[in-house]
Amino acid sequence: MMSGNRLTFTPAVRTAAFLPSLVAAALLAVAAPGDLGAQEGGEPRSLEALRLPEDAEITLDGRVREPAWDRADVATDFLQQEPREGEPATESTEVRVAYDDENLYIGAVLYDSDPDGVLAYKRKRDAGLGADDRFMWILDTFLDERTAYFFEINPAGLMGDGLMGSGFNKSWDGIWEAHVEQGQWGWSAEIRIPFSTLNFDPDLTRWGINFQRTVRRKNEEILWEGHRRNQGLFNPTYAGRLTNLTGISQGLGLQFRPYGLGTWQREPGAAGDPTDASVDGGFDLSYSLTPGLRAAATVNTDFAEVEVDQRRVNLTRFPLFFPEKRDFFLENSDVYTFAPSNGQRPFFSRRIGLVEGQEVPIDAGVRLGGQAGDYELGLLQVRTGDSEVKPAEDFTVARVKRRILEESTIGAIYTRRATAPGEDGVSPPDRHTVGTDLLYFTSSFLGDRNLRAQAFGVWHSRLERDAETDFGDRSTRGVRLSYPNDVWRGHVSFREFGDDYSPPVGFVQRTGFRRLQPSASWNPRPDFLPWLRQANLGVRMEDLWSLEGTLLTRNRSFTLPGLNLESGDEVSFEFGWNTERLRDEFEISDGVVLPVGRYDNFDWTLSAETAGRRVVSGEVSVTHGGFWSGDRTRWEGSATVRPLTGVSAEGQVVRNEVELPQGEFTTNVYRFIGEWHPSPWLSVTQNWQYDDVSDVLGLQGRLRWIVEPGNELYVVYTHNWRSRAGSLDPFAPDLTTLSRSATTKLVYSMTL
């Protein structure tokens, strides 16, 4: 019942909040397994893979001219997903697949009536291809219609890959290679993927497979299967079938990956000798216990080659989330995705080996991941060493998901964090977290619509500071129902976080609340406006109460309208009202303290983005309106220039101008990224960042040379300065060096 800004939960509502599994059980009870996964038109299309004769050879030059390709089955007759769903593609595409005992080969010919119009700006491994022509494909090697390997290339030879499952892990780097050729026919590619790169079921003679091509100048997306807008490449349910796979092998399934590292660093003003140089090394060793399950061990792990985090200024009361960038934790990390889109992470890998941004040494770790029958498994055990900021610790993470029905999963997660004994020989008790989640998905709701439902619950053991807390204080739970379809979309979710919920190896931004969040949008495609591809009219609402029933946050946001133009440009206008209640004073900036109380405000945001296919592109947004007890204007903009293939420069700026009765302040964050990629195998990047809150200017220069797939050389240089003047004058900077370092890292891979 509602009374003013207070909400009283009846016993029935409180019980529902603590038992999301009841909702999940009801969803499963009404599911019709026989209808799940049904596809329009009956059986999916199939493509027969050609078994190469022993005397056949495919030379990877991108030309698709070897005689073997002439004998291979051809995937063609692609259909448009955009802009005209279901119509034939305006440009012809032919894809062939062959294999031998050790490798899978793909030959693709992407014809183009205007070969000079083919766009290929980027060469950097795994770079986003929103501005380029591209060819993408997936391999569902277990034919489970839930997980798949993702690959993509562009006409300049860029290679990108990832893992698809509960989430999308674009940071996975498989060992494979692609070569491309451009000509008067358009462009073509030859790809080789060693079977040792993949986990698969050796008893299967067919896999799921699908292809998608982008003709960027037309903003045209075409697919071999699953061309409907409610389907698509990223849903393996709609993949076709690759048949005739026999006699394939991962080999011994053993990979040895040693590295050597040389570092030099200097911190002027530090106690003792400010200069330090060292040589170090370590290795990763992985072995396929079965063709679907792979174990790996790491010794003396180092992450010197990792890209720097993006600088941000925090004007909220809650911690900012920064994504993981370290390869050891990114590989197969999709299995640890837990109840996605529900605002909680019982496992967050940056809690291992990082403390407030400072690196803690990782002595050793083991990892297990892959498929075993109907189960997807993940296990992580890591030991960190003693450091100035943290004593040695042991981390354990275990995850299991089981496939149920045709397209759904149920899973559980467990984490443990244990601290080594201190000087007194006493260590704090181990800290444990246990959680369970359910994902129900059907692609045949109301015939051909998608429907997704989720339920989750997480609990962790007592910490030293909360010995008197109960189960509810140290747990979270929630349910979510979404309708993710074209034209109409919507969702509603409810979640509850206990006052002392703080998973020891997890990440949480806010605790002690109940939140109800519905949203809905109408996204019409008006044929009578040839310049407009799709509009967006939507509403998002959020009501968040304390566990005692006091309103803490209320948001009402409207998009009227968002426009996606045929040119690829986008523009949108949003406005809304929000309420925030502060229960404690909040220092939002140095010396600017907001008092306890209720704050009601209105603001609006206007944003525009140009199509990335242009040589010069950019985006800008401005937000203005009430902000706590005063007003704020926020400017955010970026511009990118791509004068040549493999060369780009991007500048970004974020500025907040805040006027409050308690004080005025301005924050600025600047970022510049320069990139040169003379080939898909060599990249040079420079990343400059500055913010006037810390007054620190940072530079990271990074060279990556892929000598051959799996063998890489990194050279990284970092330099940090502080502005003594309190601001950065680009023409007369007054800077003093805080630190600088240089690192060379060589990685070698040997696969058997």
Could you describe the 3D structure shown?
It is a single chain. The chain is mainly beta and 752 residues long. The protein has three domains: 1-30 and 324-504, no CATH class; 31-243, Immunoglobulin-like; 514-631. It contains four helices and 45 strands. The strands form six sheets. It has a 24-stranded antiparallel beta barrel. The longest helix has 11 residues, at 20-30.
Main attributes of the structure:
single chain; 752 residues; mainly beta; Immunoglobulin-like; 3 domains; 24-stranded antiparallel beta barrel; 9-stranded mixed β-sheet; 4 helices; 45 strands; 4% helix; 53% strand
Helix and strand arrangement:
Elements: E1 2-3, E2 6-7, H1 11-18, H2 20-30, E3 46-48, E4 50-51, H3 67-70, E5 79-82, E6 93-99, E7 103-111, E8 134-140, E9 148-153, E10 159-164, E11 168-169, E12 177-183, E13 186-194, E14 207-215, E15 220-223, E16 240-243, E17 254-266, E18 275-290, E19 293-301, H4 327-330, E20 354-355, E21 358-359, E22 362-372, E23 375-384, E24 393-404, E25 408-419, E26 431-445, E27 449-460, E28 475-484, E29 488-497, E30 513-522, E31 532-545, E32 551-565, E33 570-582, E34 586-589, E35 592-594, E36 597-609, E37 616-627, E38 630-644, E39 647-660, E40 663-679, E41 682-691, E42 696-708, E43 711-723, E44 735-747, E45 750-751
